[in-house]
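Before the break, one more example. Copy the sequence into your notebook; we will annotate it together after we see the structure.
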Amino acid sequence: MLSNRHAWWDKRAKDNKVDKTHWRNWCVIVFGEARYSLNKWDPTFIRVYKPCAMLNAPRYFNPKTGKMEQVMEMSNLTKQEAYECAKGLNFLDGE
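Here is what the structure looks like once it is written out:
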């Protein structure tokens, strides 16, 4: 008896095809962080690089263009590449 159900490998092929279209959706963002020392009251502001998915990247309104823009240093990376780039930039302090 034939049924209308699809084979499991057809469903798996569709799922894998969808996943492969979005595998380079990571970026590296930069933000400022305040660090306090024990002797000072004034904080030291440093730049920190973090890996982030593009869908979760922070947005801000740019009054010059009149559009919402994302804060990204590098984009179109895989998850592993984003973590490695952020680690390297933090080590080199953005040089």
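The two ends are 68 Å apart (CA to CA). Residues 23-92 form one domain. Try to locate both features in your own notes.
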